[in-house]
Amino acid sequence: MSTATTHLPGSATPAWIPPDLRVAPERDGTATVMVVGAWNLRSLEPMMAGMVARLAQTPRGAHWDLSGVTRLDHAGAMMLWRVWGYQRVANLTLRAEHEIIFTHLKLVSAKPVEAVTRDRFAFVVAVGAQVLSLWEHVVGVVRLLGAVTLNFFEMLRHPSRIPWKEISANVYRTGTQALGITALVGFLVGIVLSYLTGQQLKTFGADIFIVNLLGVAIIRELGPVLAAILIAGRSGSAMTAQLGVMRVTEEIDAMAVMGIPHTLRLVLPKMLALAIAMPLVVLWTNAIALLGGMVAAQIELGLGMRYFLSALPEAVPVANLWLGLAKGVVFGVLIALLACHYGLRIEPNTESLGAGTTRSVVAAITTVIVVDAIFAVMFSHVGVG
Amino acid sequence: MAECATECVIELRNLWTVFGPQVVHRDISLCVQRGEILSLVGGSGSGKSTMLRQMLALERPTRGDVLVFGHSLISGDPAELRRLRNRWGVLFQEGALYSALSVFENVATPLRELKALDEGLIRDLVILKLEMVGIEAKHAEKMPSALSGGMIKRIGLARALALEPELLFLDEPTAGLDPDRSESFVTLIAEIRRELGLTVVMVTHDLDTLVSLSDRVAVLADQQIVAIGSVRQIAGAAHQFITNFFQGERGKRALEAIKDMGVGAPVAATPPTTQGH
After folding, report:
1. Are strands B88-91 and B167-171 parallel, antiparallel or unpaired?
2. Rounded to whole angstroms, how far apart are CA atoms B179 and B240?
3. Tens digit of pLDDT for each residue in A243-281?
4. How far apart are CA B147 and CA B102, in angstroms?
5. What are the tens digits of pLDDT across the range A275-300?
6. DSSP run (H or E) holding A357
7. For the segment B154-193, what is each residue's pLDDT rounded down to a tens digit?
8. Which CATH number is B83-269 given?
9. Model confidence over B5-45: pLDDT tens digits?
10. Is A97–B99 a contact, with Cβ atoms under 8 angstroms apart?
11. Where are the domains of chain A?
12. Topology adopted by domain A2-105
């Protein structure tokens, strides 16, 4: 503390006197409060709580003598002002140069902070707002989809307008660059799945059914869903953030002014790119996950890889593969659509950017799983048995 | 540079800044005196923003020393730097308000960070600072994204003043404001500076701002301070940059204005006031 004191303001200008308060009773029953020293924020800060308490104990109607104050700033003056009840006390001795500070303080009155009234129906209102907001999002997504569909048909009529560069850049970013992470996750999931089911099958002596189990599970369900979740987290968030920043920096308005529809240049290429890249990523994830499964099956059950591969087409009808790839296309389009929808709604502040990106990823993953369930029900007779 | 006769609030000692092969500052020494408004001017890329950032300890010079209130920013310990940072306020070019916080919270943040003030006092101080920069209390709950550029600058100034600084840094205080707002903002800065006895370091491109606020101007060009002095002294200096800067149409008009009003001299001659004894 003592070392700090030497560095406090005033070390350069005349001697720095610590702020203090003295109450001197007068003969006629009143009192004089002497305020002395450097009465500024930096000097008062270390003793703030104690000083506020001492100020509160000063007698009412006292004479305040501030002529011993060497430095005064708004924070120091405000402490006195609050004790005085937001007005100048009648009996005040003040240095001329401190007069101006107190003229500023007149700007602040004792307006109480408006009490927040509690709404009894707050819960109902909140639920209603949530429902309305969900509805608004649904309408927004449908509108965006409509605009992109119109763009798509217009683009087909004028093939010269196809944004090849954007599409290929997006395929590279969302597909090629995602190969590593999808391979890692797919391989590990394949191993875990194969190891666990292998143990169970061994107890029934049904070792060879691991080919059916792994094949159907991975190709029909896990491959597409795993890939979609990874791509939603990886590319969906990036798309939302990119569009969000473009909104913040008015780039989207700049495109509109030039007569370039942003749905054509920004949203459509992303949706097309993911529609192309997703089934490929699904195929890749399937292959790596099956590889992981085969490795674990060989170790756990002694099932040869050659046997596994030759039994696979027999065990898993090819319709499952087509179904999985079709899911990939749908998931890809959905992820891009939702990412763009949330990206275009971001408001120009940092919090909105963060919240929008989070919501985009959560919505994309939820939608992917819901749509996957719909697929499961719709195609329950396809590719089984 | 001549020896500092009066006390230096900021002192640059033989400052060198080198980015790769490019020398930005070549052996610069400068003294900002207590109570003055010093403007840094210079062309784009002349290193005035870098110099401002070095004074704020946001960047380190390659060689040399920066002293603020007599403490080195280069070799001082972190605790010392933290204390120094509470003694200066900065108005960034775009205001740099925290976009996730309301106007009130923006100004309250530095006060809250002290962890010493109670909520009532913080509320009163925030309202006072906002009133001082001409922002009514009804705007206090708004978010920065809902404000105009002029209001953002004013609130940025209120936030810079929150901790009762002795030193104020202004980075392009009037950039992006329309002439009317710009003028009222300049008046506001001059008023606040006079009333609070602040030392101000300002980077500006705007001639009107420069002429109406500066006590002294330092011109950065050719990696050095090629001229330093009052606006009138500077305007007469024979350096390529200065001639271009002041002898253009706008420069002439701005200089005409000070000749008519005779500003500059009285402001500079007034000794720094409101220093308690």
Report:
1. parallel
2. 28
3. 998 888 888 888 888 878 888 888 999 999 999 999 999
4. 11
5. 999 999 999 999 999 999 999 999 98
6. helix A350-378
7. 888 889 888 888 888 988 888 877 888 888 888 888 888 8
8. 3.40.50.300
9. 467 888 888 888 888 888 888 888 888 888 888 988 887 77
10. no
11. 2-105, 128-378
12. Transcription Regulator spoIIAA (3.30.750)
User: What is the Cα gyration radius of chain B?
Assistant: 19
Instruction: Calculate Rg over the CA atoms of chain A.
Output: 36
Decide: A236 and A335 in contact? Cβ < 8 Å. Answer: yes
Half-sphere exposure of B86 (CA within 13 A, CB side): 21
User: Is residue A45 less than 8 Å (CB to CB) from chain B?
Assistant: yes
B positions 217-276 inside 8 Å of A (CB): 273-276
Listed by start position, the domains of chain B span 83-269
Helices (H) and strands (E) in chain A, counts: 17, 4
Confidence of residue B272 (pLDDT cuts 50, 70, 90): very low
Residues in A closer than 8 angstroms to B127, CB to CB, are 107-108
- Locate the chain A residue with the closest alpha carbon to B125: A75
Q: Give the strand pairing for A31-39 and A63-72.
A: parallel
Best CA proximity match to A61, nearest among A29, A105, A35: A29
B181 in contact with A, Cβ within 8 Å: no
A10 phi, psi to nearest 5 deg: 100, -10
Alpha-carbon distance B128 to nearest alpha carbon in chain A (angstroms) = 6
Q: Which long-range contacts (CB under 8 A, 24 or more apart) does A249-257 make?
A: A252/A344
Give which of A153, A173, A179, A163 is closest to A285, Cα–Cα. Answer: A179
Q: Give the pair of three-digit tokens for residue A49.
A: 């709580």
Q: How far is A52 from chain B (nearest CA, A)?
A: 9
Spatial strand order in the sheet of B88-91: B88-91, B167-171, B199-203, B37-42, B216-221, B224-229
From the list A52, A70, A348, the residue facing B277 with the nearest CB is: A70
Which residues on B lie below 8 Å from A5 (Cβ)?
A: none
The DSSP code sequence of B227-273 is EEE-HHHHHH---HHHHHHHHSHHHHHHHHHHHHHT-SHHHHHSPP-
Sheet holding A63-72, edge to edge: A20-25, A31-39, A63-72, A92-93
Does A108 sit within 8 Å of B128, measured CB to CB?
Answer: yes
Nearest CA in chain B to A352: B100
